[in-house]
Design a protein that fits this description.
globular
């Protein structure tokens, strides 16, 4: 799939599912790349690992505004990450294993707790992901 095809696919997803803005899909893909890069070797991530990586990447990119930015895009809970991941999987833009399920993203953390002033500094593997 070309980059243009990927963008068209994401635009279509955002148009068909108004819960999430186009930027949320692009952010999840970028956060996946960021999170994978935090581990010593490339490997498949669990929903929990990706959720933690998404929070870390959001703080890295948006600092104190991370929660506001995510919520503006429709991301209000970790299960929203799973919703987007599974929409991207359905379109062939992400992959999963037999053991993976959307519910792996449910309740990984609470946004009120995760996106506080004290949590702004991004961390590295293994402290956050281990």
């Amino acid at each position: 799939m070309t980059n243009i095809d990927m963008i068209k696919c994401i635009n279509r997803l955002a148009e068909n599912d108004p819960r999430y803005k186009r930027e949320a899909y692009l952010f999840i893909l970028a956060a996946l790349e960021y999170t994978v890069s935090q581990f010593p070797a490339v490997r498949h991530l669990t929903g929990q690992e990706l959720s933690r990586g998404i929070a870390d990447y959001a703080r890295h990119q948006y600092g104190y505004m991370a929660r506001a930015v995510l919520e503006h895009w429709g991301l209000r809970a970790t299960l929203d990450y799973g919703e987007i991941v599974y929409l991207l999987i359905h379109e062939g833009l992400m992959s999963k294993t037999e053991e993976d399920k959307k519910e792996d993203f449910e309740g990984v953390y609470d946004f009120d707790t995760e996106f506080t002033w004290e949590q702004v500094k991004p961390t590295k593997y293994p402290e956050r992901f281990g």
